[in-house]
Each structure stands twice: as C-alpha cells, then as structure tokens.
Amino acid sequence: MFHRHADARLPRLSAEGLCEHSPSAGRGAGNPGGRRWLHLSTDGIGPARARNHAIERAEGELIAFLDADDVWLDHKLSRQLAYHAANPEVALTGTDYRFVNEAGQTFSTFFDLVKPDEFFFGAPAFQRLADPCAALLGCNLIGTSTAVARTEVLRAVGGFPTDVPSASDWALWLKIADRHPVAISGATLVDYLDRPGSVSKNIAARIAALHAIVDAYADRTSPAMVKSVRRVRTQIALVEAEADLAAGRTWASLVGRLRAFAGDPSPEIARGIAASLLVGIGARSI
C-alpha cells in the first residue's frame, strides 16, 4: 500500500490489511501516528470477501479504502474526515482521481474523462447528490481508493457483494446510495495507477456483472433512474459490441452498436456504426 498524507485517524483497508488508529499504540519513528496494524490473512478468498472480513474487524466509525497500487494525496483524508464530522448523516463520500502510469506520469482525471452532469464537477467542496442512487447507477463516480464510508452502514447493507466480483464496489455504493445520503468532491485527491492491460481480462464476467447490477434497478420509475438505466444499458451494448469485434464477430458487433444507438443516438455511436459497417462489408467481400 502506498500513501503520502498526514492523516491517520481512521481505519484503512488495503490489500495488505487493516490499519487502525489507536491512542494506546506505541509512537515512535516506526509508528509516528500511533497506528495499530492488523494483518489479516484471507487465503485467496477474493477482494470482496477479504474486504468484508476486514470490515467486520474494524473498530472505527469510518473506513477508508486504498488499493495497493494507488496513492492518497495530501489532505485527502482530512478533508473527508472534516466533512463526515460535520455531516454525520452522510454515509459515503468520494473524490475525483487522476491516472498515473508506471513511470509516474500523470494524465487525465476520471471526471475529466466521464464529464459527469452533476453540479459538483470540478468543485473542491463536497456536495450531496440529489438522487444518489440514480447518479451512481448512471456512472460509478466513486473510485474505491477515494471512498470513505460509515462502518455501521457498510455492515448494515451486507458489505461488498460477492456475486458480482467484477463490479462489487459499484454494487456496494449503489446499495448505500439507495438508503443514505452520498457526497462527492470534484477535487483530485488520489493517484490511480493505470497499468497496461489492467482492465478485467474476463470480459464475459464483467458484462454479466453489469447486467445483474442494472437489472436490479430496472423497475424504478423516477425520471433520473430511468435515464440512468438507459445510459448503463447503452454502455453495456457498446462493451458487448467491442467484445464481439475483438472476437471477429463483426455483424454481431454492428447489431450491438445499433442497440446502443437506440438508447443514445449520439454522433460518436453513429460513427462507430459506420466503422463497423465498413469492416463488415470488407470482411464479407474477402
């Protein structure tokens, strides 16, 4: 786990274990923050179950998550701690994060890429989502290493779902957002290591997980939720189309793009349809 910050007042979950702040823990050069590390062995049970095991062992009121390759920037936790202290009813917060390659070069932030419609875009202050479940369904705005959540809420909703391993964090945020207030900051407070090929290799499992998550909210009738369901299904259709194209199923890819276009008749998708059509015609003429 890598982090450069001065905050050590709440438990952090990482691939290496659970770190808890304890006033009684020894202080010194090796432990300047009085932190107590609990190294939990989970014997390869997977990220979701491992995190749930750590959540059950945590003693603090809040839990922050940090994946092993990511970096918290200065004051990341202090900002979130201050906000949660002033707004105890908020169950979950997240921030923007930027992509960094293995050479240490920084690139776009996540919000720069997805350009969320929410009013907090680019704003450093934490602001609540008006309809948190719909907003997070339309786009998973909370990267795992940016999240801080209330321990009692994490336990009450059952922790990370284990039946959607390719998207367990998104599924958990949605369960929380369906019951509690959620706030987001547009400040960039985490570096996310973007490794080549780090996207899930099992694309079929990823697609199945996305379908399962969106289907769980498909019967909601609020305008915001209907819009988000349509948006996600459009994105799923595009992912399926890309997978079909990579597998040489050109016409299946075209059908997927047409399905996506029905949900979002945008120029970008139209250009993708034209490209798929040209590829399909070329393949058929060979």
Pattern of helices and strands:
EEEHEEHEEHEHEHHEHHHH
Termini gap: 52 Å
Sequence stretches where pLDDT stays below 50 over 5 or more residues: 1-33, 280-286
* Shape annotation: globular
Plain-language structure description:
Residues 1-33 and 280-286 have low confidence and may be disordered. The chain has helices at residues 47-57, 76-86, 110-114, 132-138, 151-156, 168-177, 203-215, 223-246, 250-263, 267-285; strands at 12-14, 17-21, 35-38, 62-65, 71-72, 92-100, 106-109, 127-128, 148-150, 182-193. The protein is an alpha+beta fold. Helix content is 42%, strand content 17%. Strands 1, 2, 3, 4, 5, 6, 7, 8, 9 and 10 form a 10-stranded mixed beta sheet that branches. Helix 8 packs antiparallel against helix 9 and helix 9 runs antiparallel to helix 10. It has 2 domains: 12-193, Alpha-Beta Complex (Spore Coat Polysaccharide Biosynthesis Protein SpsA, Chain A), CATH 3.90.550; 218-285.
Briefly, what is this?
The chain has helices spanning 47-57, 76-86, 110-114, 132-138, 151-156, 168-177, 203-215, 223-246, 250-263, 267-285; strands at residues 12-14, 17-21, 35-38, 62-65, 71-72, 92-100, 106-109, 127-128, 148-150, 182-193.
What is the topology?
Layout: E1 12-14, E2 17-21, E3 35-38, H1 47-57, E4 62-65, E5 71-72, H2 76-86, E6 92-100, E7 106-109, H3 110-114, E8 127-128, H4 132-138, E9 148-150, H5 151-156, H6 168-177, E10 182-193, H7 203-215, H8 223-246, H9 250-263, H10 267-285
Parallel strand pairs: 1-4, 6-10
Antiparallel strand pairs: 1-2, 2-3, 4-9, 5-10, 6-7, 6-9, 8-10
Which short descriptors sum up this protein?
42% helix; 10 strands; 17% strand; 286 residues; Spore Coat Polysaccharide Biosynthesis Protein SpsA, Chain A; 2 domains; alpha+beta; disordered C terminus; globular
